[in-house]
Design a protein that fits this description.
With about 500 residues, this protein is α/β, with parallel strands linked by helices. Helices cover about 40% and strands about 20% of the residues. The radius of gyration is 22 Å and the shape is globular.
């Protein structure tokens, strides 16, 4: 049997085909697309039709590559970018472009929630989470306040992966994991939070799809798509989930002690908990996962965004960037990079800006700037890891995924900053692999434990494992304290 994993992201959609017998990834495909241009600052949107076209094409490419083996495809799982708002009218047509997770236009609405619910603590008491600009619920309130005509047309509200599942099956449904990132789910009970929903609008509840377990099937592939791709028999569609929930499965992060760090456009750090992991300060997101457990998570907005900016600034290719970082010492000669080029989510600085601090005539070199960028992006995630530790979530190993994990320099910086052994995956497609494993479990072997499945299908690249260097650990401990103080001081004085 073969299972297809889809990872529909911010920049591209990827598909892979997993052989259930051998664990081999038989083929993969990818198609890129853009964020819509010409929007005001802070508004980041995409046309959901771009996702659908990409899904159609990448599955089609995998099917073609499989040849006669395409008849072995038994299930499909979908990972999607979290928090995005997809609104459909009574004819199931998309009303407007989707507002994305990285859209920060909803700062005013978040402040409104905090004001009317007695601050973050009041929101956390209700749902387990505060309301952040990236979440879905402030986007809905923004739409009601700024696009009343469009809001009145809404029949159904979906998340990105829900919309793809709807296209694949004709069924509208939302599972616990992705739903927990809307800001409307009581993560303790896995039920909609009526107080928050009613606050937005009395009609909102009826616009939300059926809510259910992440372990359940979503439905079956529409006959038209079965015919289009030349498949045979019933092809089942699993519940799917948000990219971080699928990434947790795809990195084997389904038991205590393992933490996943994703070094992509943004950065995420997430772990596993058998009970709701509620952060009283609201900096750790208390999400549900895709195994019907919980996924404490922190997110930063700027990881490879930062290194790509530096690379372009100095006209470096990937190899040149790596060599430049290698040429500089830990601590980058005293340079300190606050990486908030797109604002920041953790700490919550939606209007934040980047800062290069500590410049002198003897340290302002491309190598030091490149290293400071890598260090700054990683130290931003370390802030979140320390929040984990304060909640009793102590990592024994951190598994790296995302484009940044391909860098040997970055892997060692991560081990030293986190003071934990780090290891990348043999495949960089954590979310796609997790989606395929979920499809396999739901469609092919529903009785299997996720830990056993991950032991079989998740392969670590042990040749690239990095152990912390004690000398560097102390350097980065001091640098993290410096970054935290700089951030606090500049933010409080209105200079960030």
């Amino acid at each position: 049997m073969i299972f297809i994993g889809i990872d529909s992201g911010t920049q591209s959609t990827k598909a892979l085909a997993l052989d259930a017998e051998t664990g081999e990834i038989l083929t993969s495909s990818q198609e890129a697309y853009d964020i819509l241009g010409g929007l005001p600052n802070g508004h980041l949107e995409q046309d959901p039709s771009d996702w659908i076209e990409a899904v159609r094409n990448v599955i089609g490419a995998c099917v073609e590559s499989l040849g006669d083996r395409k008849q072995e495809i038994r299930g499909i799982g979908v990972s999607g970018q979290q928090h995005g708002l997809v609104v459909l009218d009574e004819n199931d047509e998309v009303i407007r472009p989707a507002k994305l997770w990285c859209d920060t236009s909803t700062v005013d609405q978040c402040q409104q929630f905090a004001r009317d619910f007695s601050g973050d603590s009041g929101l956390i008491k209700l749902s387990g989470n505060t309301v952040l600009p990236g979440y879905t619920v402030p986007k809905i309130l923004w739409m009601k306040q700024h696009e009343a005509e469009n809001f009145a047309r809404i029949k159904t509200i979906l998340l990105p992966h829900d919309y793809i599942n709807f296209w694949l099956t004709g069924i509208k449904r939302m599972e616990y994991g992705d739903a927990s990132g809307t800001g409307m789910l009581d993560v303790r009970k896995r039920e909609w939070c009526d107080e928050i929903i009613e606050y937005v609008d009395s009609s909102l509840r009826e616009k939300l799809p059926q809510l259910g377990s992440s372990l359940d099937l979503h439905g079956t592939l529409r006959s038209a798509l079965v015919d289009e791709w030349g498949l045979e028999g019933e092809v089942l569609i699993s519940a799917g989930g948000g990219d971080n929930m699928m990434g947790a499965i795809g990195t084997g992060n389904v038991q205590s002690g393992i933490i996943t760090a994703s070094f992509g456009t943004s950065g995420t750090l997430y772990g596993f908990s058998e009970s709701p992991a509620i952060d009283s300060g609201g900096e750790v997101a208390a999400f549900c996962d895709s195994t019907d457990n919980w996924l404490p998570l922190v997110c930063t907005m700027n990881v490879t965004v930062l290194t790509e900016q530096v690379r372009e600034l100095f006209s470096m290719d990937i190899a040149s960037l790596e060599a430049s970082v290698s040429s500089a010492q830990p601590g980058a000669g005293g340079l300190c990079f606050l990486p908030y080029l797109n604002g920041e989510r953790t700490p919550n600085l939606p209007n934040g800006t980047g800062v290069l601090h500590g410049m002198r005539t003897d340290n302002l070199t491309p190598g030091n700037i490149a290293r400071a960028a890598m260090e700054g992006a990683t130290l931003g995630l370390a802030y979140g890891l320390n929040r984990f530790r304060g909640m009793g979530l102590e990592p024994s190993e951190i598994r790296l995924t995302g484009g940044g994990s391909n860098s040997a320099q970055w892997r060692q910086i991560a081990a030293d900053v986190f003071n934990v052994p780090v290891v990348p995956l043999a495949t960089a497609e954590g979310a796609g692999l997790g989606s395929a494993i979920q499809a396999l479990r739901c469609c092919g072997d529903g009785g299997s434990d996720y830990a056993d499945l991950c032991d079989k299908y998740v392969e670590l690249d042990e040749s690239k494992r990095c152990i912390p260097n004690s000398n560097n650990v102390s350097v980065y401990h001091e640098l993290l304290e410096k970054i935290n103080k700089l951030t606090k001081d500049l933010s409080e004085t209105g200079h960030l």
